[in-house]
Amino acid sequence: AMLESELRQAVPRNQLRLYYQVQVDRRGRVTGVEALLRWQHPGYGMVPPYDFISIAEESYLIVPIGEWVMETACRQLAAWAAEPYTEGLSMAVNISPLQFQQPEFVGRLETILAATGARPERLKLEITESLFMEEPDAVRDTMLRIKALGVRFSLDDFGTGYSSLSYLNRLPLDQLKIDQSFVRTLFEDNANAVICASVIDLGRNLGLEVIAEGVETEEHRDWLENKGCHAYQGYLFGRPLPLGELEPLLRESA
Ligand code: G
Ligand code: G
Ligand code: MN
Ligand code: NA
């Protein structure tokens, strides 16, 4: 409860931060970043999302927090579009199911896009399978409205949920993201290697881009590339970084 009352102050007291982790294509070119939330707490230091996202969801604070994330990410996206070396970058933003299901979500997204001038085509919303459990048809309708704005969708943590695969074809998805739990243990656990290869095949057969996260070594990248994986994210290419540390890396790779 104490953490919750402090978290309530995090937005007004300007304690939230976005870190950015690069995403690369098969040639190693940086094509975009994922925005990852941090809480700069005056006493505890930099708190990772793992320690406060569930509290934010239980208390519905995820709604204003998610809005802060969206607005900050879109403002950054618009700033990058004005710089030659970051012009074409995309921005992936994690969306909590609760945030997505707010009736105002699409309207707020439109307002933020218009206010910041961010190009919708450069914005990618990361959603998870859990979103489809309760009202899959309503979720699909909302996705179609967002898709009509030009915004893209990535299915995050893919393979860790329990839902059936039948929805994949019916949803306006652009990308599947293989969860890092499968990628990191690729060479130790044959079942995970089979899952990685299957997800890549599935995505390719459905016309979806496949990105692997948690790519930590060249060997992992090469194995995934050989299976046909389109894009990569992980410590091999860069850790989540604050803006000031990310920008030199972007300039260098341009
Ligand atoms: O940055 P990483 O370190 O630890 O993030 C852990 C998890 O927290 C991510 O897998 C992601 O799902 C979640 N997360 C990170 N940033 C956000 C955010 O802005 N909104 C939501 N809802 N979840 C986030
Ligand atoms: O949204 P999501 O769960 O997918 O966020 C990705 C999380 O994975 C972030 O918390 C990020 O810090 C973490 N991460 C990103 N790349 C790597 C990696 O190569 N290895 C490990 N162990 N974690 C990673
Ligand atoms: Mn994610
Ligand atoms: Na993930």
From TrEMBL:
UniProt entry keywords in alphabetical sequence: c-di-GMP, Membrane, Transmembrane, Transmembrane helix
One Gene Ontology term of the molecular function aspect: cyclic-guanylate-specific phosphodiesterase activity
Superkingdom classification of source: Bacteria
Membrane keyword on record: yes
Stretches assigned to the EAL domain: 1-254
Name of this protein: cyclic-guanylate-specific phosphodiesterase
Source species of the chain: Billgrantia kenyensis
Part of the full-length chain shown: 652 to 905 of 910
